[in-house]
Amino acid sequence: APTLTGPASGATLANFQPTLTWSNPGGVTQYHLQVIPAKNDGPGIDLHSGSTDNSFVIPAAPRWYGLLPDMTYTWRVRVSDASTFADLSDASWSPWAEGTFKTPSVTSSTISATKPSIR
């Protein structure tokens, strides 16, 4: 199984565009990444990639409005060494490596208008 390297499990993020990182064991040909909101409430990520990457940047708004403020998410990754694109039920998948993170809180004092400019 891969080893999660960041963010640390249970950490509160500094922003809404975290980079999720993990280390892969030898021979990996693809990975399966999921980001699951608390109680499965709201959008999530379910990415099956035919690459050996060991990181994924969650896009921030306005590219994607998927992370909600002050909320805990579970993220997990599993890997396969199959020589062809493995179905998600394929026996070559490793066990999941799993962690959590919390998104930052947002208050009116941390929000400011960008357009139109205030004079």
Strand order of the largest sheet: 2-8-7-4-5
What's the end-to-end separation, in Å? Answer: 55 Å
Going by helix content, strand content and strand pairing, the class is: mainly beta
> Which stretches of 5+ consecutive residues score pLDDT under 50?
none
Counted by DSSP, the helix tally is 0
Strand content: 35-45%
Overall average residue pLDDT? 92
Order of helices and strands: EEEEEEEE
For the biggest sheet, the summary is: 5 strands, mixed
Shape: elongated
Number of strands: 8
Helical proportion, percent range: under 10%
- What does the radius of gyration come to? 17 Å
Please provide a written account of the structure.
The mean pLDDT is 92. The protein is mainly β and 119 residues long. The strands form 2 sheets. The chain has a 5-stranded mixed sheet with strand order 2-8-7-4-5, with no helix packed on it. Helices cover 0% and strands 35% of the residues. A hairpin with a 7-residue loop joins strand 4 (30-37) and strand 5 (45-49).
